[in-house]
Structures are given as structure tokens and as C-alpha cells.
Amino acid sequence: MWTNLSNNLPLTLLGSILLALPSCFWLGRAAYALPREIDANLPVQPPASHNLSKRVFLLAGPFIALVFSLFFGSSPAAISSTGFMLVLLALAWIDAETGYLPDKLTLPLLWAGLLVNLNDTFVPLEHAVIGAAGGYVFLWLVYRVFWLFTRREGMGFGDFKLVAALGAWLGWMNLPWLLLVATVTSLAVLLVQRLLPVKREITGMIRFGPYLALAGIAGILGMWL
């Protein structure tokens, strides 16, 4: 998994772009279509920010792939890491815009993490399995405790599956600090929103996916740096 498929730098960079472009186009389409498969009541016309977000994503995705391959080569581990980051960015975008984390992205991401770690690529396989199961159960328990005390849903089930996917890729030992980073960041953003002169409506449900996704990207980068 750590052996470069090509030692020719121009070929490696070209290959990274050719892999990233179709992936980003598909994920860009998925960002519109998948939430509407879940909730038919979502407006057919997405918000004005959707097209801007799509353009940013289509530019950022190939750029990330290019930079990652420039520094870390063309090994299967590097390619899978790039794919991991691109899917996390797409999930962050979808959750921020619609409040959904589609199973058609989170579950393949989870299984991909277990398959990537079959040969202990990033963490031992047993750490990945425990991370996937433990991450889901831990967040479900947090959800249940919050429900018992408040009778409100503090997060969605997609968050459980996303944490399970992070555990599958990065192992159970990395989950505590990933959850800490995501929680602190989300609380900081919530505090800033409350302090802004223009108040926004803040519901009981926190869209935790973007913060989990960013923590996951930081986690996979930490494996390489």
C-alpha cells in the first residue's frame, strides 16, 4: 500500500488530476441528488450558495489531489487518502446545506476504511474494527443520554455512521481527539453565531457532520506528516 505506482512525477500529477476530476464531478452531482432521495420535500431548486459551493469543490478537489500526490507520491495509500478527504469534503458540504449525511456515502466510506486497513495500512485492522463499532455506539449513547434529559434530538443518525467511518480509517485510539476537535470547533462556531449582531435561528439539532469531516481530514493528514 505504501509503494508508489509510478516514480515519474509528471505522470503521477497527471494521474491524480484524472482520478480526482470525475470523482469530484460525481460527488458534486451527489451533493444535489442524494439529499433529495432522502427527503422529497427538499426544494428542487437548491439555495443560491449551492452553485458557488459546487464550483469551489470542483476546484478544490483536484487541487488537493495534485498537492497530495506531489508531496506523498502515487501509492495506493496516498490515493485512498485523497479519496477519503474528497468524500469527507462532500459530506461536510451536504450536511451544512441540507442537514443530511447520506448512507450512500458514509457506509461505503466505512467499508473502504476497513478494506484499506486489511494490511494495517494506517492502523491495525483490529483497531479499525473496534473504531468503527465503538465510534457508532459511543455517539449513539451520547444521543440517547441527550434525548433522555431534553426530549430533543441533538444529532442525526448519519453522524453515528460518519464517526464509525472515521474509526474504520483512523482507529479507535484516534477517535477521542477527533471527537474533541469536532466538538470544540462546533461549540466555538455556535458561540460566534450567538455573538454576531445579526442573529441566526439556532435549532436544537447541531449539524455536526462538517466538524467531524474536518477533524477526519486533520486525522488522515496527521498520518502522513
Could you please describe the fold and organization of this structure?
The chain is globular and about 55 Å long. It has 8 helices and no strands. 75% of the residues lie in helices and 0% in strands. The mean pLDDT is 92. Helix 5 (125-150) packs antiparallel against helix 6, helix 6 packs parallel to helix 8 and helix 7 (175-195) crosses helix 8 (209-224). It has helices at 9-38, 48-72, 76-98, 103-116, 125-150, 157-170, 175-195, 209-224. It has 225 residues and is mostly helical. The protein has one domain.
Number of domains: 1
Q: Which series of helices and strands comes N to C? A: HHHHHHHH
| Low-confidence blocks of residues | none
Strand content: under 5%
Binned, the helix content reads: over 70%
* Overall 3D shape: globular
Task: Compute the number of strand runs.
Answer: 0
Round the mean pLDDT to the nearest integer and report it. 92
What can be said about the biggest beta sheet?
none
